[in-house]
Amino acid sequence: MSHDATAPDTHEGSGSAHRAGRRSAPGPRASRRSAQPRKRRGLKITLGVLLVLLLAGGGTVYWLYSQLDGNITGVDIDKALGEDRPEKTPTSGQNLLVLGSDSRAGAENRELGGGGSVGGARSDTAMVVHIPEGRTKAVAVSIPRDTLVTRPECVGDDGSTVSSKERVMFNSVYSQVGPACVVKTVEKMSGVRIDHYLEINFAGFKDLVDAIGGVTVDVPQAIDDDATGLHLTAGPQKLDGTESLAYVRTRHGIGDGSDLGRIGLQQQFLMALLSEVKSQDLLGSPTSSYKIAKSATKALTTDSELASLTSLAEFARSMNGVDPASMETIMLPVAYDRIDKNRVVAAEPQAGRLWKAIREDAAIPEDAKKSPATGG
Fold first, then answer.
1. Using CA atoms, how far apart are residues 49 and 52, in angstroms rounded to an integer?
2. pTM of the prediction?
3. Cα–Cα distances in Å, from 214 out to 87, 205, 244, 285, 293?
4. Is the N or the C terminus of the chain less surrounded, counting Cβ atoms within 10 Å?
């Protein structure tokens, strides 16, 4: 795997996705509900936003709503991809493509990216999150950014047509053609219809973690990474935004220094982050809720269908039953490329079986979760 953390488009990206939080005193609504079983509230940042708006009252409601709503960037994925796409699942299951983007636009993102003069934006963390019918559990499949894929013919952000190309690094698709082409690439390689797109940038990720008061993770082994400035001992550690970003980006501090070695850290952190958001008493702390919502909306780019507070809130409500603790995390089975050992390719038949199970909303076979290349 490549060890160059600052290589241009065709080599690397850089990163994105906890702490066991302290609950503030419950407000009146929370007290009235204290005798009822507490519902699971995974992925509900936006519900807290709406509660803040309701509590604010009067003209302030419209001002707050407009400010937060205007923070969200939307991408019209459906228009860009047209009709040549996999069929929608016949069930009520949903598939989300979640990307962490390494945008070097702006001083804050450049500083968080490790400095230097690298331009453009690249996708770092990439997960296909499948929520089966019933929406009481979820599976997150990480796609290693060093995976060699066939990029399909796509329409770029400027409206020009970009021809298909074989053996390109997965993380280069974002910088070369844009987010819609990343969705199309995932759909072509998996046969899975992507229903929604969510992207978070470097600076937004840092601010979100700081807004919720940090995140606690159980560091599996000591990390000593001069490249990111991350130095942690093994065991539970509370990380602030900058440390969290370094944690999900570290390559040289764990495993063989490749992208594969850090995927486990990214998946672990995502679960911890979602659990922390769930543990926050958004009902009892409107000020905290607004701060979290502001950070989250500024960080987000979504498909146009989700690009509003009301749409995000409705989607979050539909995810009520998904508990981060029950989410299964899997790395796409990959094998080292025969030509370039610093790259990987989808391992068959494991990858095919994994995608087939997701398409059919079925249980994923155990042998479809095993990867010949581990990064260990």
1. 5
2. 0.75
3. 40, 11, 8, 16, 15
4. C
Q: 136: closest CA among 94, 172, 177, 101?
A: 94
Burial degree of 355 (CB within 10 A; 0-12, 13-18, 19+): buried
Which tokens in the block code for residue 351?
A: 């990858």
Residue 78 backbone dihedrals phi, psi, to 5 degrees = -60, -45
Residue type at 354 in one-letter notation: L
Residue 4 — very low, low, confident or very high, per pLDDT cuts 50/70/90? very low
Could you tell me which of 355, 373, 372 has the C-alpha nearest to residue 141? 355
Sorted by sequence, the CB contacts under 8 Å of residue 152 that are 6+ apart come out as: 164, 181, 184, 185, 188
Tokens of 276: 């922390």
pLDDT over threshold 70, residue 171 = yes
- Distance separating alpha carbons of residues 247 and 15, to the nearest angstrom: 9
Measured CA distances, 130 to 2, 87, 135, 230, 349 (Å): 29, 15, 9, 32, 20
Q: How far apart are CA 206 and CA 210, in angstroms?
A: 6
